[in-house]
Write a structure and sequence with these properties.
The chain has four helices and no strands. It has 114 residues and is mostly helical.
Amino acid sequence: MKDVIISVLLIAGASLSLIAGIAMVRFPDVLARLHAALKPQVLGLILIMAALAIELGAPLDAGTTILMIVLFQVITVPVAAHFVSRTAYRTGRVKRDLVIVDELAVRKEQGKEH
């Protein structure tokens, strides 16, 4: 039973990572690519780490390392996505016609954008 659970977690995690890779090629602009690529990638990593924790029985050292990997990804991926999207917006790489609500343009008009 343990092997079945691990296999399902590994296949699901790998599938989500594959979907994230396909999204990088298929989507039209930076914002769509970030959204479609990073969310499944992080969830895929979490599933793969869960499978690893089950396989190892999560001893203290391995469990701590797995937990640190997951926490680091969950914390840093949104921050990195924010900086990449903000840079893409400022350099004009965002297709403005695809943006429904443009809060940065409103802030820029109000003079609050630095």
